[in-house]
Amino acid sequence: MREHAEVAPKVWLPPDALALLGELNDAGVEYVLIGEMALAVYGQDWSSETVSIVPARYARNLDRLSRVLRELEAGWRVEGETEVLEVDLAPAELAKLECWRLLTDLCELDIEFAPGGSSYHELFRDARRTELPGGLVVQVAAPTAAGAR
User: Would you say 6 and 139 are in contact if contact means Cβ atoms under 8 Å apart?
Assistant: First the structure.
C-alpha cells in the first residue's frame, strides 16, 4: 500500500471540483481521477471543469458512490439542455452502464468504468497518489492514461 503522496505542483483547480472530490473521499469511495482535471494536475492545458473518475466496481464501493450522488442531488446531464433528468442512482443501476454524465450540486461529474478499455484496477496500478490544494489526496491516473476516454 502506498502511503506517501506526491504534492501536485502549484496548480489551480476549481473549488467546486475539489469539493466534489472531497465528498467522494469523505465517503470512502475508491476511484482514480482521469480526464481534464487529471491533466491539470500534471500541468497540462484543460478547458472543462468536469470531474471525471473511474470508480472501483465492487458492491460496497458502488453503495458509497450511490450515497454521495444522492446527497449531491445528481441528475443525468443532457447536452444542450438546461435541466437535468432524474435518474435512479442505486448501486445496481450504476453498475448497468459503462458511462454516466451527471450534474451534481457542486459540478459536472463523469463516471466511466472502463475508459479506453482500462479498468479501475489497471489505472490504479499506475496511478499517482497526489496531494491537491487543501491537503486533498487522490489517485490520479498516469499522464498517459489521464486523458484516455
Answer: no
